Amino acid sequence: MRIIFAAALLAGTAVAAVPALAQVVPPPTPLPGDGPEDARLKALFHASDEANLKRNPVEGIFRGDLRYAAHLGDYLTDAHYAAEQKAAEDDLAGLKRIDRAKLTHVDQIAYDVFLNQTDIALRGFAPDILNTQKLRPIDHFFGFQTFYPDFASGQGAAPFKTLADYENNLTRNVEYAEILDRAIALFKQGEKENIVQPKLVVRNMIEQFDNLINQGVEGSVFYAPVKKFPDAISAADQTRLRAAYAAQIRDVLIPAHKRMRDFLANDYLAHARDSVGLSAMPGGEKLYNYLIESNTTLPLKAADVHQLGLNEVARIRREMEEQKNKVGFKGSLADFFTFLRTDKRFQPASAEQLREGYEAIGKRVDARVREQFSLIPKTPLEVRPVPAYKEKTEAGGSYNSGTPDGSRPGIFYYNTYDLPSRYMWEMETLYLHEAVPGHHFQISIAQENAALPAFMRFGGNTAYAEGWGLYAESLWHDLGMETDPYQRMGGLNDEMLRAMRLVVDTGIHSKGWTRDQSIQYMLDNSPMAKTDATAEVERYIAIPGQALAYKIGQLTISRVKAKAKTALGDRFDPRAFHAQVLDTGALPMPVLEAKIEAWVKAGGK
């Protein structure tokens, strides 16, 4: 499961078709209690955000800000990296000229978030860290080919309401092809320095490009926008655009995909690593240490994370034994896992059954959610299947955010690839994580809060975002879910997944674990399908450290909640606690903990 952010070059949220300036964030206006330092801070945030949108036009499109929509961005260039580094340096310098002690409480939180995020981001531009990243410019999980086709499909982020929208997309498509060619050049440089992707990542990318190539012209996801036009596009323009899109797919996009596919298959694969962990690559150990902190927002050591994971796995196994006994299953826990994987009663008969099941779960959650939450987002939610072209390498579920004005809904995607492996006992916990009260609440509530600076409304960090998603799963009892022991096993299975990630991710990248060893560990400790375990392990290989954030974030949120309940006693209100966690966007873990401690000292009000 993953949430897809409109961040840097890997965004994946969809964007509504809205007027060009509908989502532009206006200059900050003073709030009651603001002083001169607050005004300076907000001006810094606004200027930083405006500059970022110019450097990264795609981020504006994801937010519904179409001022720079004629471009995708100059990603994978030295100029882009240099501009991002200088922006971070300038932002930090500007921040340090502001007296934090003279800010309001809320702006002190914003100051701390900005400082934490910018400092960690800036350290990523250290030459040895940057080099190990940029010479592996794409992978099968976060490559441009994984998000841009959907972005430009008419069903994703790019809007297709006006003639300008269609023309802008043609321009962006050219830039996308140029980015792929730049990626080839960076891969070649990486070959010379022995900084390369693992072979399995390369093979997965080859398959992705084959899938895109094999769509042909009129079957291409890039042709989809001209299959149906809005009424505002004239018949003459429709004819012209259909021809232009077909020509571009034939002469620009398919050749770009073929160049990348052929390079990967005929050149790069031979240079790629047989090993899968970062520790086997020059500079890999230092990079992994950085990735642990950048993903968890905490300076943790790989060995400590590994042991924490082992402890959590042992605890969850004990709870799984309890559920096995509740259903009267005779046999070992491993036998119970096999039963859950193979019994036909748990396998959906159709994709339609999955859709109907998730919609029914949504209604049940909605009936109880106000018992735990006072903040309810206005943004609507839709349930959709993962697009077929990327379903094989996608997670079982994911969430794409809506727009702040609600004109585009949030979308919960469920995966129908290898349908028998989409066990129905995992549906309730998946919905809680990805939809309500998980990512849909967390992202939408932040986006709808216009009082927050843009980097807090639209940005984030993985530990908070995915930690919240996993924490949302833990509310199953309070929301009347998982009353069936099998659905409860689904909840434990998902929690086990996040615990195993601590073990497996660190095992792969710091202890030399192999792909097969990692897959077997996950199968030995959970009822997840081999299809899912394989996709999970290959994800950790492709994007090291990201999977650690889920459990680290959840444990932090759960720990501060437990401390607050102990301190406040009968005064503790879960609705107030959840509002505190959610109303200032995605906070780094140290900032979140400090905020809740201050709230408790104030009496939980």
Structure description:
This protein has 605 residues and is an all-alpha fold. Helices cover 59% and strands 3% of the residues. It contains 23 helices and four strands. It has a four-stranded mixed β-sheet, with helices on one face. Helix 1 runs antiparallel to helix 3 (78-96) and helix 13 crosses helix 14.
Write the layout of secondary structure elements.
Layout: E1 2-3, H1 36-55, H2 57-63, H3 78-96, H4 105-123, H5 127-134, H6 144-151, H7 163-193, H8 199-213, H9 235-271, H10 284-296, H11 302-326, H12 333-342, H13 351-368, E2 381-385, E3 397-400, E4 410-414, H14 427-434, H15 439-448, H16 454-458, H17 462-473, H18 485-510, H19 515-524, H20 530-542, H21 549-568, H22 574-582, H23 589-601
Helix pairs in contact: 1-2, 1-3, 3-4, 5-10, 7-9, 8-9, 11-18, 13-14, 14-17, 14-18, 17-21, 18-19, 19-20, 21-23
Structural class: mainly alpha
Order of strands side by side in the largest beta sheet?
1-3-4-2
Task: Report the sheet-strand fraction.
Answer: under 5%
**Uncertain segments of ≥5 residues (pLDDT<50)?**
1-22
SSE pattern, N- to C-terminal: EHHHHHHHHHHHHHEEEHHHHHHHHHH
What is the end-to-end distance? 34 Å
Please summarize the sheet with the most strands: 4 strands, mixed
Radius of gyration: 24 Å
Write down the overall mean pLDDT. Answer: 92
Shape: globular
Helix fraction, binned, reads 55-70%
Number of DSSP strands?
A: 4
Total number of helices:
23
